Amino acid sequence: MYNGSYIKDLSKLGREMKDCIIIDNLPKSYANQPENGLPILSWYDNPLDVELGKLYPLLIMLSRVKDVRPYVNRFVVKNTICYDRVQKIFEKRKDCVSLLKILNTIRGSQGHPVKRKVKRENIEKCENVKPQDQNIVDEYVNSSNKNE
User: Fold this and answer.
1) In 10 A of CB 71, how many CB atoms?
2) 3-class secondary structure for 43-76?
3) What pLDDT is recorded for position 129?
4) For residues 60 and 136, is the Cβ–Cβ distance under 8 A?
5) pTM score, two decimals?
6) Whole-angstrom Cα distance, residue 50 to residue 13?
7) DSSP type of residue 29
8) Which helix (H) or strand (E) holds 38?
9) What are the pLDDT digits (tens) for 35-60?
10) Which residues partner with 12 through β-bridges?
11) What residue segments make up the domains of the chain, in order of their start?
């Protein structure tokens, strides 16, 4: 605890920082390693929350890079994920094209979260979704449509 806030120190995990991400609604939580932190909206007792699911494609894209830190530094600005920057950063990577299409569909055409029931066909309209990325579609559709 530091200044009344809990600080999560990723170095205590014993893993290389280039491979670590922390997702938290409070930027103070990852103050020791801000280059490893992804902000997320707060949720409290909401069984319908799907914010983490919206990050699936981005997390898969980050799992394909050698070091997450320079990427996170480029698209997290003022504790917000700038999805237009994510698009520019990853659009040249052939292994991320279908994930970007899925991410754009999930986030909505204007970069805003989709606030409606997700239909599988809307995501599957993305051309050339790789088989290894299909599970992201399945997980997101299932989590977003839960309890409806």
Assistant:
1) 20
2) CCCCCCCCHHHHCHHHHHHHHCCCCHHHHHHHHE
3) 55
4) yes
5) 0.72
6) 27
7) G
8) strand 37-39
9) 999 999 887 888 888 888 889 999 99
10) none
11) 10-144
Give the number of other Cβ atoms within 10 Å of residue 26's Cβ: 16
CA-closest candidate to residue 2, choices 41, 37, 30? 30
**Pick from 40, 123, 124, 125: which is nearest to 76 by CA?**
40
For residue 134, the model assigns a pLDDT of: 61
Please name the residue ranges forming H helices in the chain.
Answer: 51-54, 56-63, 68-75, 83-90, 97-107, 120-124, 134-144
pLDDT on residue 142: 62
In the predicted model, residues of the chain with pLDDT beneath 70 are 108-148
Nearest by Cα to 20 from 2, 8, 3: 8
Is residue 65 within 8 A of residue 46, CB to CB? The reply is no
Strands (E), 65-106: 76-77, 80-81
Question: pLDDT value at position 5?
Answer: 79
Closest CA to 139 of 112, 120, 126: 120
